[in-house]
Amino acid sequence: MQDIIKLGFTLILSSALIALWVTPLILKIAIKAKIFDSPGQHKKHKNPTPQLGGIALYIAFLIPISLYLPLTPPVVALLFGATLIVFLGVLDDLLGTKAWIKLIGQITIAFITYQAGIRIEWISNPLGGMFNLDWYSLPLTLLWIVGITNAVNLMDGVDGLASGISAISSGFLAIIAFQTNQPIAGLLLLTLLGANLGFLKFNFAPAKIFMGDSGSMLLGYLLATISILGVFKSTAIISLLFPILTLGIPISDTLYSIFRRYKNKQPIFQADNGHFHHRLLDYGLTPRQVVLSGYGLSIFLGLLSLMIKFFI
Fold first, then answer.
1. Domain of residue 226, residue span
2. Which of 81, 127, 128, 246 has a CA-to-CA distance to 239 between 20 and 30 Å?
3. 142 vs 32, 109, 228, 230, 245, CA distance in Å?
């Protein structure tokens, strides 16, 4: 156990330091190449801001995992999927792909991940034991991976919000993974936590660099797939509830967005200003206040999931 704790601290520290080192380099490259996210109708920043920060997050996650963890088939599959999702995100950041093309890419990557063995095959039976999903495994796995990927992507609307909430979610999911005897998943989550903490130095309001779709989709993909490797392997009756609660903000915001757009007869994938962070900004909160409010709510939901895990 002491070795796991020591390795966990090593992964957090190394990923954070790599993010602190790599992000300024990516920032300089983005500025030199004139890769900026310009203000627009659904964007709240006032000045063009360099992006592609997702590449820094990817490097800060990839290097410690490659150095310190055994490259088992699930870990290799996860890193391969992460590489594909970052590539898809970079294409969108540079070229601005259409929403349906991006969705097809996400589904394809989720399917590749499923075929590589990262899948939701069992869920807890409230009456005891586990329930084999059989052929439902494929659609449920694809829905989870694509859904969480897009949920974090939609949340990336205020400086530091997506990265901070992803860090908080990673921390709480890591605790649950260790408690359910899934140390590799817990260590992967601690690495993701460290990468986000290092990146936040440059992404917290006012942001010097944006993560872009390459970053937000990466964070969503990793949270979705690592939770499959960790929390969904639990035999607890309410194991499905843990990642849903911990990722409660992006999940609820996405579901409400779908409902809102359907009700208003808008295309599901059409951007709007109805997300929870937009609402808080409209109420007069500053970007920092919005972000800190999101952090507080995310911590509350994480603590609630731990209370359910340990006391019920």
1. 2-311
2. 81
3. 38, 9, 11, 17, 19
For the segment 139-169, what is each residue's pLDDT rounded down to a tens digit?
999 999 999 999 898 888 788 999 999 999 9
**pLDDT tens digits, 214-237:** 999 999 999 999 998 876 655 444
Three-state secondary structure call for residue 237: coil
Tokens of 269: 């994938």
Number of domains in the chain: 1
The values of phi and psi at residue 124, to 5°, are -70, 140
Q: Apex CA 66: angle with CA 140 and CA 216, to 5°? A: 45
Question: Tokens at residue 70, please?
Answer: 């055994």
pTM of the model: 0.90
DSSP alpha helix (H) spans, the chain: 2-32, 53-68, 73-95, 99-115, 137-155, 161-179, 183-203, 212-229, 241-246, 248-263, 276-282, 287-311
